[in-house]
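re: ur question from the group chat, yeah i did fold both. here u go
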Amino acid sequence: MKSVAIHKAVPFGPYSIEPYKVGDISGAAAAFPNLVFEVVHGGIAFLEESALQVQHLPNVAINLEATSLFILNWPRKFATILGTFLAAGATDRIIWGTGCPAFHTRPLIEAFWQSFEIPQDLVDNEGFPQLTPEIKRGILGGNIARILELDIEDQRKNIAKVNDEFSQRSDLAEPWSGYLTKEKAVASQA
């Protein structure tokens, strides 16, 4: 399978919003059913339109680049976005992304994996499914590995063969950006 990532939803500069809308993806996805179209920044804008696409087009995926930022400072917004895509049946087509050149990914990944849940009132009132470890594993790498036809075990074996400065580390580096969680910001002011 081949995949094309298309940046949508986040306009850069004082330009027309038209190119950032997701409407043009439907025609392309229908015309090229053997190609996966990743909507990068999925859900930041045009959430309902994007959800309809993943609901009706099995070759449209959602990439959470930049959308994942909401998890720390606006978790309910992130839950609404993620829940909308899960309810639309995109469980196997949601791809974790962060935008790592702008900020460290570690706090986002840890928050998602360790403690993030869809709030129960959104499950009850909106019909969003609750996250399971299997769904989280898919979002954090399993979905994109499947889409790109990557064998995760083969990738692990290849990584284990690498002997460089990064493979020698036994600890994790502290986040390298100025991005702080609320807790760290409060602690630094104390």
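okk and heres the other one u asked abt
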Amino acid sequence: MKNIGFASYIGVLLCMQGCSRPEKGTVPTPPASKASAPLFQVDPTTAGSVSGSVLAPGAAPIRTRIDMSEDPACASAHVGPAYDTQLTLGAQGAVTNAFVYIAHGLEGKLFAPSTEVATIDQRGCSFQPRVLGLQVGQSLRILNSDPVTHNIHPMATINRDWNHSQGPGDQPITRRFSKPEVMIPVKCNIHSWMRAYVGVLDHPYFAVTDRKGHFVLPNLPPGTYTVGLWHERLGRQERQVTVAPRQTVTANFSYNAKGKQ
């Protein structure tokens, strides 16, 4: 009798376990995912901006001639003499290709990634543009307009490092970066002189200075911000500004001949 009772008890347990399993062909319902944080919307009636210029009146431009003779196709593809463009200055020491961005002050605000597709072209055996800004999740399209094979290699330390060869006439490569990182050096493993830099932010407030050294960071919500500045030759700087509703704040930067403020 004891054995029969024990067997019945085991049978009940097995029945309970069997009844608790989902029927064949069904998929268990996954746990509900956490709701995404709402995207921050800038009020256009109160938005301001930061604008300014970057100058290096005591610096001398880098005019190092690039020798492309190791690849005759590169030499013929480049229009005119090739020079290193890591430091290009305009009138009165205007610094081009400086990356300006909001470094602090937007914490806790979530912005939608830009739907605009950014582009780097390998043309004349150089990366164009040399300095580029992206939002996290924004599409980056890489082209090869040259008659030679190139290799684009972003040497990221926070994002994933990747390396991709691209021959003449190959389809564009599309990539995205998943984390903020300022800046990511980019090189071509085939042509050692090819260099570029990509700044990745989790917001849309960044710019690359033009030939006059100018930049604008528009549509900023009112607040106090740290404006960051990066240049591959001259280094980094920061400046704090406060933007009142509908106000345009000027933030000028200056480097001396040694790259310091």
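fwiw on the second one: Residues 112-202 form a domain with the Immunoglobulin-like fold (CATH 2.60.40.420). Confidence is low (pLDDT under 50) at residues 12-35. idk if thats what u expected
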